[in-house]
Amino acid sequence: MKAIFTPLFAVLCLISVISCKSDDDTPPAPSNADLIVSNWNMTSNTVDDGNGTARVQGFPITADFIWDGKDYDYQLTFNKDNKVAENGSLTLVLTYSTLIGTKEQEIPLNTGADGNVLLSGAYNISSDQLTVTNDGNTVVATIDELTETTLRLSVDLANVSPQILGAMVENITGTNKITFTKQ
Questions:
Q1: What is the CATH number of the domain that holds 151?
Q2: Interval 13-43: pLDDT, tens
Q3: What secondary structure letter does DSSP report for 80?
């Protein structure tokens, strides 16, 4: 009996050791802070649910709006030192509706000395939030997706610094959805 029990016990011990092997052999998944460090090309920039109030000749005008980007030549570069730089341009096709009708307007956006896009400066990632700060202006974006090849951001326009929107805009709501692919 002892001759059967000893090998059986040894096999059971071996099985339990193998089955209890630590799963620590797999490397941890990269964090958002690690994945974002790269060069990213913009492929989409939309707002489908916008509403805003602006002052035109002193009178408040409220409008519903949407926009869709085109002519993308816009890149973001996130560095390990928590700096992000933008480069390039895009055109927003803005469609807005007021009491007097619907209009469409193309708005070219450029970076650089004369640029009017703000996603350059110091950045911080906390969980699924990306915060970019430059000269007192702040943009906070939710990271909807971040993989080795895709970065999708959502920006709540109600939380964008008023200086970025311009002096005429009093308030704005909507969600700006932006997609990038890694270079």
A1: 2.40.128
A2: 444 444 455 555 677 777 888 899 999 999 9
A3: T
